[in-house]
Amino acid sequence: MTAYEDIRLEGHIIDSLLLPRVLDDILERGGEYQILRFRMGRHKDDHSTALLRVAAPDDEQLESILRDLQKHGVEMLDQEDILLEPAPADGVFPEDFYSTTNLETFVRLEGRWIQVECPEMDCGVFVDRKSRKARTIPLIRAQAGDEIVVGTKGIRVVPLGRDRASRAFEFMGSAVSSEKPKHLVLAKVARQMRDAKAEGKKIVAVLGPAVIHTGAAPALAKLVAGGWIDVVFGGNAVAVHDIETAFFNTSLGINLTEGESVEGGHEHHLRSINRIRRCGGIKQAVEQGVLTRGLFHDIVRHNIPYVLAGSIRDDGPLPDVITDSVQAQQAMREHLQGAGLCLMLCSMLHSIATGNLLPATVQTVCVDINPAVATKLSDRGSFQTIGIVTDVGLFLDGLVAELETGGR
User: Fold this and answer.
1) Where are the beta strands (DSSP E) in 174-324?
2) What region does 292 belong to: left with phi over 0, alpha with psi -120 to 50, or beta?
3) What is the CATH number of the domain that holds 67?
């Protein structure tokens, strides 16, 4: 072994299994380690500290190992300032750019640590030397000449420790739950919503069309009316099916009262889109008295901002839908500032897209009948996500009841 670096790992590194994960990652990537010093916390709230020497056959492999370890919050002992290189062109990072996580991150500039604003995964770090500020920046928004952090020097990532993670849902034991007592789940989610509101943070709801199909829209409308929802994300489908329900009492042509298909019902969604397009949009349809009920009617009436991101399979789409995915992503990013809790309700793609934009400190609850949705979120890096496997209609009805009773 010809190259090595000494690193420090501090926090709840034993009970969170962080230290074993770090050691496994070193070995799996062809490196070796030596524990130079280890101090275990004596009480449950104490931090433990480990000093390790990481070795690899050459500098390139060592750099690769260290880059991977940074997501665990390791800190280099021989601290140096960050390395900065200019973006070579608009929408292009330097070759060796640092790829961010969604964890709290600091960079060292001129001997001082600066917090990176707006933590978000899969971005770069843009540094403004004059203002001494750093922030994440998506690839598409880089401009030629922007100074971007490269390499692994001068970067410190703060892992999501046990003290944070255990505050919510530690009773669940695993990331995805289908068998835990639902009243405990509902009580915990309601408590998190109250806490977010008390702290002045936003509650974001990500909606899939199943919210309408399952008859859960009235319960969600109660949350909107009660001031529990601050932002709504979704696609063309969820809005179209809600509006179809308001106009025809069907969703995809199925009567929501009787559960039977209606003659000519397959046309209802397109007729609904056409009616809204004639008005100029959902808000205009409400203002003109054309759309008089339904979830999106209530969202408009209560001035709740919403972002509808389009897809290649959209019918219409509604005028409100942002068909440019980059623009939709940026709109979502802006509305997520100040978020404290995110409810992801039966929408795999929009949930994953939202999870990619969220800092790890934002509590995220994913409700879906398919456990694979929450698993995919975790696999993509949204490891703060708690999955609740249940019918979204039953979940929302129970959540409304829990919030209305105030936990009594």
Assistant:
1) 176-177, 202-207, 231-234, 250-251, 254-255, 306-309, 321-322
2) alpha
3) 3.30.70.2690
Rounded to whole angstroms, how far apart are CA atoms 13 and 17?
6
Residue ranges of the alpha helices (H) in 12-124?
18-28, 59-69
For residues 387 and 256, membership in a common domain is answered with: yes
Residue 40 has what DSSP assignment? Answer: -
Exposure of 227 by Cβ count < 10 A (0-12 exposed, 13-18 middle, 19+ buried)? exposed
Domain of 271, CATH number, reads: 3.40.50.10690
Do 86 and 192 sit in the same domain of this protein?
no
Sheet holding 83-86, edge to edge: 83-86, 147-150, 124-128, 133-137, 112-117, 104-109, 155-158
Whole-model pTM above 0.90? no
Q: Verify that 349 and 392 share a domain, yes or no.
A: yes
- pLDDT averaged per 10 residues, the chain (length 408): 80 84 91 90 83 89 86 80 96 95 91 93 96 96 97 84 42 44 82 95 96 92 97 97 93 74 84 97 98 97 97 94 96 96 94 92 90 73 73 92 78
Show the domain range for 29. 1-77
Q: What is the tally of structural domains in the chain?
A: 3
Helix, strand and coil percent figures for the chain, each rounded to 5? 35, 25, 35
Same domain, 176 and 311: yes
